[in-house]
Structure formats: structure tokens, C-alpha cells
Amino acid sequence: MRQLCKGNVAIVKGAILAGCRSYYGYPITPASEIAEAAALLMPQVGGTFLQAESEVAAINMVYGAAAAGARVMTASSGPGLSLMQEGISYCAGAELPCVIVDIMRGGPGLGNIAPEQSDYFSMVKGGGHGCYRNLVLAPASVQEMADLTVLAFELADRYRNPTILLADGFVGQMMEPLDLEYREIPIPERPWAVKGTPETRKNVVNSIFLEPDDLEAHIRKLEAKYIRASQIECRSETFHTEDAEVLLVGYGIASRVLHSAVERARRDGLRAGFFRPITLWPFPKQALLDAAQNVSRILVVELSNGQMVEDVRLTIEGRIPVDFYGRTGGNAPSVEEVYSQVMQHLMAMA
Amino acid sequence: MAIDSKTSAKALEILAAGYQVSHSKSPAFYDTYERKGDCKHQTHYCPGCGHGVAHKLIAEALADLGLQDKTIFVSPVGCSVFAYYYFDVGNVQLAHGRAPAGATGIKRTCPEAIVISYQGDGDLAAIGTAEIIHAANRGEKITVFFVNNAVYGMTGGQMAPTTMLGQKTTTSPWGRRASNEGFPLHMAELIATLEAPVYVERVALSDNKNIMKARKAVRRALEVQRDGIGFSFVEILSPCPTIWAKDPVQARKWVAEKMIPEYPLAVFKDKAHEAIENRAIPQRSVQDVLEIRAKDDVPLTELPKHSHHAEDLRIKVAGFGGQGVLLLGQLLTEMGMREGLEVSWLPSYGPEMRSGSANCHVCLSQRRIGTPLVTRPDVLIAMNEPSLRKFAAQVAPGGLILYNQEHLPQDLHLPHARVLCIPASEIADKLGSSKAANMVLLGALLEATHCLLPATAEGVLTTKIKKADMLTWNCAALRAGREFMDNLTPDGTITRAH
Ligand SMILES: Cc1ncc(C[n+]2csc(CCOP(=O)(O)OP(=O)(O)O)c2C)c(N)n1
Ligand code: SF4
Q1: Which residues pair with residue B75 across a beta bridge?
Q2: Half-sphere exposure of residue B145, counting CA atoms within 13 Å on the CB side?
Q3: Which of B73, B88, B284, B286 to mutate to test binding with chain A, by most A CBs within 10 Å of its CB?
Q4: What is the pairing mode between strands B312-320 and B379-382?
Q5: CATH number belonging to domain B291-486
Q6: Ligand 2 pocket test: which of B79, B81, B119, B148 has the largest number of ligand atoms within 8 Å of its C-beta?
Q7: In the prediction, which pLDDT does B495 show?
Q8: What's the CATH architecture for A236-349?
């Protein structure tokens, strides 16, 4: 049965469905509804909601709760995520599963609170110190805000690694139908956790490895996880790629605009196709290569000055021209804008 | 231990200096320090270091109180980062200064555990000031042992917030000057000013007598947590012979002679009161909280299924904040959803709202919705003049504009769209609630376009509005909007019925 739900609220609903009962966070537009929904809902199902004194504290509360075996999350936007980077690095180093939501807004600095997709670098490429990766999921609809939150918790546990839900102010603020089905979602055992029990007394949660060889071995172990994840966790969506001449690539809200643009192009008899990464890390390279096999041009559209486009270019390795169109500051490209870009490209090819 | 009063001061000092090696090991320590690597019988602390003594006092207390199995020791960044080498308890290592935040997450997850946050003065009183103050202020049921050695030990002797005035460190090479670095920070006193903390004491590892006092304080602090009373905090003045460039005996003397005068030893707070009242929050099932309803739970109002929806309808609603702009959009969206359409609603938010105007984008479609942004609306509902001026030009050719006034502004010509002027606020006023202007416009829209069914609107209003009189007003306004349309001639001018 569908319910009309805000994207930010859907995240909390997905989290509760996934068995998460711990939320630590600090308010920031356009992510505050996540904290507000968690404050309202978590305690009603026996969970914990705590407004931390800062994002620095919030991520370390997440670290502590995860170390103690909780399925736990936090959420923020750019400035808050910048503050969390040290803690995220510690979580990755100590192999603590947790879910971190970034509802992107305009930056750098205080920027503004309007939507952008400008945290791709800081979330997908790291941002914190050290050799680690975040798993990163990019929802594009309210339904996905919930579904990918459930998946995020599963991935976090599967890889004992922070998993980021990277959305933007539009997807966070919009309302769409949400179809939730109640089901028991198993929470895996965490025998490594420190719970204040005789069985877990010998456990230690830690990210310090003083000896170079020990740290290198630890990094290799992390790397092995990342390789495994990149082999099996890539997710993406395609549309009209079979005979496409121009492939439009975007994630999150940008992909929604691209979807409309491709539909319009097809109505006008133009052979445009659509590719949307759902996992930003691991980046769905093979799927992109498959989708791009017969196209002669790729257009990447982002609400940034060009961040994900670098991964598209790394994937395509110069075989096809990869162009970029971006808007920033809270502006979103309109379908008309993207459509005219497509026309230009088709004309350039003709 | 009883001390012979005739024992010389010197002998006492030596005794105290030897405290950490002269007793048998607490069972709360590992027998050998396997995690440490080399020298598995010795700690990594320098001879005469206060950390060793503090560890010993804590380990003894944990064993004596029978808390070892329940304990989670949070180690900081500082010389005690490796506490997990020694304590045979659950161990969690945290980022510099963040131990109280981490301990909060741990304790909230495992309320039965005994959670210890062990921190140095750089960790607690500099980089982690916010975390300690707020953990204390929330009354987290944890125990904090704060080792104040007036310097940064681990990083090689830089200034700490607790460094004494005049004290030379590598980053206060001229001696700490109040004019440049401020004054030594008195954390125990600061924490004691807060309401929530239950037990706050400062002790010193300066001589045997004070060590015995420290021993008692450590126990008391752990008992406060064990009994679930609240936040306990023990500041431990502690020698760091290496950085101070003193031998262990001199270092203890320095604690006694220099530190204690600056940092007086005292019990600053000991409220053995009951734990703060915890108001229980009513519990509901997950299905309830998530508003998951099986299809057959929902009373299906006998809606005639709408059969002639437009394939796509993109609507923009705009006006002043407080006119119910966002709500009108949400209603349309909810109605569309109930009629089986794909729908999306996107609000303007933030500064736009603050300047007093609001708008939202609504898409109704028979197919998956691409962009939820409405840049070329098929319908504009302009609830005030600025919104009309701002968005009218965006309306798609042949689109519809509903304007909340009797006439268009004289200078405005909108030949590209069909314009319906509806004095919705006036109509709503007459019905007794100017707030219902949005409903008048909704009624008019339904009548003008047949995009959704009026019965659906009433169905949605019935489930959304709990207050009976509010519901009556809104439904009346909806009807008034529809009736108004009956009196409107197609060219957009009004035929007055009265
Ligand atoms: C974010 C961050 N900044 C700086 C450091 C470097 N650092 C490690 S320990 C320390 C100070 C430790 O001093 P204190 O807390 O007094 O403990 P002690 O070593 O004296 O026991 C500093 C600055 C760090 N690890 N992390
Ligand atoms: S440097 Fe100071 S605090 Fe660190 S171990 Fe040595 S004596 Fe102890």
C-alpha cells in the first residue's frame, strides 16, 4: 500500500525496517527531517535517538555504538560531513559497519542550502585520511531512499565498512509514493563487537597498528574487501541503450532530468540512451562499458562542476568523447537545457 | 595501608614511587601483554609515569568490585592509547578527544556495561572539550578518568590547556604566558558546575596518602556507575617524569608542590541522588510506526475510477508562506497517488521560504516520472501577484493559470495561456476562513481541468484533517471553488451570479 512520503523521512523508515535502532546526529538543512523523523520514530520502537553536540561527536557516537554491536546511522549535509571525515576514517580503519547519509547542498564553505551534487569527491573518493573506501549508494527517488538505506545496512555489515547514502536536497525534500513491505531483515551476528559481556571481553575495536608491517597487512585486508565488493556489488540502471547514439549519464536527481530528456529525445526520434550508476563506489564500470558499446558520444550531467565525470572518463579510457554539462549553486539543469545539449551533440556527430 | 608516622618523608616518596611495581598484579590486567609485541611483562609507560599507577588503581577496583566482565574501557589518543594492551576487559580505542562521544554510543547500546572513558589533558581539555562537557551535561552513565599531567606526553611535550603558568614546554618555550595562552583550565571545577554529574573529584598521584585517596575515588566513581546513578568524573594529577625531565621522585614532588596548589584536591560533587527521571515513550509496532498497511486494511471509499487522466500534468503552486501553498501541492499529489497515478511533490525550501514566499512542483503522470522539477508547468496556481509575475511566463503554451484575484494586473498580458481569475481568498473569507483559499483554488482546478476527482479530494481531506470544523470549512471551500467555476465564462471573465 503506497504512502506519500518525504525522501528524508523514507530514509528513517527504511532504517527502522532494516532493524536500525540507533541514530546519532546534528541538524542541518536540507537533512534535518532525517533527525526529526528519527527523534519521533526511533524511541517508539525501542530505539535510541540522540542529538549530538556536533557532527564530530555524532560520528564518534556512531563509532561507539557500532563497536558495541548496534546497527547505527547518522545523517548530515556537506559541512557536517566535512566534520565527520576523521570519524569515518576511524570507522573504516576499525572495520565498523555504519550508515552515513549525506543530503548534499551547495558548497564550498557555507555555500547554500540548495541542492548540489558536489560531495561526490569527498564521499566517493574518501575525504578522510588513509587507504580506505566508502561504499556509496545514490538514490534517485523516495522509494530508493528507503530501499537503498536497507541495502546500505546490509552492505555495511557484509563488508564491515561505512556505507554512505549520497543523495541531494531535491531527493531529500521531495515527496513521492513509498511502498514499504514489512519483513524480518536478519541482522548478522557481530562476534567481534565489545558488549560488556564475558564472551566479548577479549575483543578490541581499534584502528591503530603501530608496526609498519602490521598496518600494511591490515590495509591489504581492507583492500581485499574492496576488491570483493567491486566485483559483486556494482549496481546501475539503463534505459534505451540498445541502439543509442548518445548516452546520457547521471546519478541521483540529475538522472531524473536525464530520464525525461531521453524520453523526449526518443519521442522526437533521436537515439539517446540513459545510464544511471546506483552504486557510486564501487563504480559500475562494466555496466557502463556495456551500455556505451555502440554509442559515439557520452554526456555526463551533474549538479556540480564535474566530479563523477572523472570516473566515467576513467572507465571509458578515451575510447569515446565524454562531455560534461553541469549546473551548480542550487540550480538544476532543466529538461530543455539537457535536450539542447543532446541536440548539439547529435549535430556535432552528423 | 598504614604508614608509620616516623617513616621519613624521603622513604614515603620512594614507597610511593615504587607503588606500581611493588604489588601483585590485578586480575583485571592481562598476565602477559600479548598485544604489545616486545617486552610482554612491562608496560610501555616510562618509569614513574602516573598512567601506570592510574591503570593499577582502576584494574584493582574493577577486580574488587567484580566488574571485569562487564567493563568496556575506552582508550584515548595520548600515551594511554595502548591501554587495551593491559586491561583484560572489552576495549575500544577512539579518536583524539572523542572518547566521551564514543562512550556515549557504547553505553546507550549496552546500558548494562561499565563504560570507562580514560583521557589525557590534551584529549579531554583541548581537542575534546565539547565532547566531555556534553557527555557530562547529559549525565551519561559513564565514568571518566582524566589524567592531568600538564603536558602532551605522547607527542613529545607540547603545551596542554592544563600547563602551569610559566611552565616551559616545546610549544611554550618562554613559559606559558597568560597573555598568550590563557590560564590553566580547571576541568573538575568546570564539570562540577553542571547539573547532571553525580560525582566529581580531583586527586593526585603525588604521595602514598594521596594515592590512597585516588584509589578510593576511582572506586567511588565506578560504584556510581555500577549503581546506575549517573556521570562520574575523577581528575588525576599525574606525574610525567620524561617530559618534565625529572626523576620519578622529583616528578611526584612537582605534582605535590606545583600542581596541587594550582589544582586543589577536593570532592567537588557527590550527589548520591536517584537517577534522573526517565519518562517512558509509548511503544508501537514497527508496522504502525512505518505506516505499513495491508491493502485490505484500508477502507476503500467507493471512488469512481477516473478514466481520463492526462498522460502528464505538471503543476506549479506558488504564493506567500502561510497561504497553504505546500499543502495544496501535497493534496494534489496525494490525490493523484490514490487515483493510481505516479506522482511527485517538490517544495521550495530554505531562504526562499524565509523571504515569505513558497512554491512547489507537482507532477501527475501515468508513467514513471523523470524530473520532479516543473520548469514548464501545464498549470500554474498563483496565490499572489509576485508569484504570478515570477512564474506566468514559464507556463507552457496553451497551459492554464489560476490566479487568486478578481482580475489580472492591468499591465500583465498572458496570451499564451488560459487565465482564470478567482478571488479565492475573498470566497474563503466569506466562508469564515481565509486560510481555505487554497481549497477554493483546488476546487476550481478540479472543475476546470477534471484532472482528478472531487471525491478523491474529499477523501484525502477526511483522512488528513482530524478536526471536524476544519474539515467542514475545507470541504465547503472546495465546493465553493467548483461552484465558482460554473459561473465563469470560457474567456476568463466573471459572470456575477449575484
Ligand atoms: C586529530 C588529532 N590531532 C592531533 C593528534 C596528535 N596527538 C596525539 S596524542 C596528542 C596529545 C596527547 O596529550 P594528552 O591528551 O595530554 O595525553 P598524554 O599523552 O599526556 O597522556 C596529540 C596532540 C592526533 N592524534 N589526532
Ligand atoms: S611521556 Fe609522560 S605520560 Fe607518556 S608514558 Fe612517559 S611519563 Fe607517561
Answers
A1: B93
A2: 30
A3: B286
A4: parallel
A5: 3.40.920.10
A6: B79
A7: 39
A8: 3-Layer(aba) Sandwich (3.40)
